[in-house]
Specification:
Blueprint (H helix, E strand, L loop, with lengths): L16 H18 L4 E5 L7 E7 L9 H14 L8 E5 L3 H12 L3 E7 L4 H9 L3 E5 L5 H12 L2 E2 L2 H8 L8 H9 L9 E5 L4 H12 L5 E6 L5 H7 L31 E4 L2 H15 L5 H19 L4 E7 L13 H5 L5 H14 L8 E4 L7
Parallel strand pairs: 2-10, 3-4, 3-6, 4-5, 7-8, 7-10, 8-9
Antiparallel strand pairs: 1-2, 9-11
The structure holds pyridoxal-5'-phosphate.
Length: 383
Amino acid sequence: MIRSLHRVVAAPERPDSRSWEAGAIRTIEADFNRSADTHLIPVPLPATPDVHLYLKDESSHPTGSLKHRLARSLFLYALCNGWLHRESTVIEASSGSTAVSEAYFARLIGLKFVAVIPETTSPEKIAAIQFYGGRCHLVKHPQAVYGEAERLARELGGHYMDQFTYAERATDWRSNNNIAESIFAQMAQEPHPVPKWIVCSCGTGGTTATIGRYIRYRCFDTRVCATDPENSVFFDAYASGDMSLRLQNGSLIEGIGRPQVERSFMPGAIDAMLKVPDIASLAAIRYLQQVLGRRCGGSTGTNFIGALHLARQMHEDGERGSIVTILCDSGERYLRSYYDDTWLAARGMRIEPALAAVRACAEEGIPLPWTPGAAGACASPER
Ligand SMILES: Cc1ncc(COP(=O)(O)O)c(C=O)c1O
């Protein structure tokens, strides 16, 4: 039985760490207050006029991708958990986009930043990380980013931000201008304000989880379809339920597709998945370049193919409605890869016939030559 009050054990207080944290949080919130929301762009699909497609343009964030939202959430989450202090070095394992955005926020609050990234990461992304004062630590195997980031954090006495674990936790899925809340607000005056489908691809799985949770929380009838590129385990894990699947190689489409099922991948928040061949993704961004007059990154192509497939299905079923998908980042980061025919040819890819197939599908309704593998709500047996 406790007879007397024991002395209070206080955290090993760093001098003024609470005031530093408060200052850092205010700085991030002020940056947010200066920022505008991203746009929602209608994309015409001549072959399916009753299905309206929209792209949520996340490339217009200050750091050029959907990861800007996540990086802000991860820094606020780490600050509010007391995981950061003024001398902290932040380390992240990333395919590049998250590292660009985290380097931006680290610099904003005066912290050092180290990105552990695959050596195949586009030179443009490496330059962007360094532009924001980050240091790049390259690894040979995509699988090695996790262990190497943990090792560096121990070695440097730093903080491993670990987007793959915390993406789904750090993001406020009920509001706070998350990507889903922004989409529904921007759809409000459209002919079909509640989309039938929102199509999104998975890297951490955080964006898809946020969208799926928000839709359920608001009781919308919208379905979430997640697209998956080649050399990724998400589709097979979703279809089979086996979350222990692993692959050696990484995905060719930067930012999405993973060699293991990440902790932020929430299959319960996903209604359907589509497996999209890489050639289809890369042809789709060439088509979008012609339609939008600018370049998108590879994962946007993966999303577009998923949306096109679902639009055709709705059209065939005589359904009217809308579909929203994500323009994840700009194609200016991939000039020496996806937009370089020599780079594609070296990987056995001829873009012209695939581009013609995407155009024929979007404009004349001719089925895509690649039937995306389907699982869940869009995989009805009779098709
Ligand atoms: C370009 C790009 N697209 C899509 C994604 C997928 O986003 P999430 O990690 O939220 O699943 C990423 C993730 O890194 C990305 O970099």
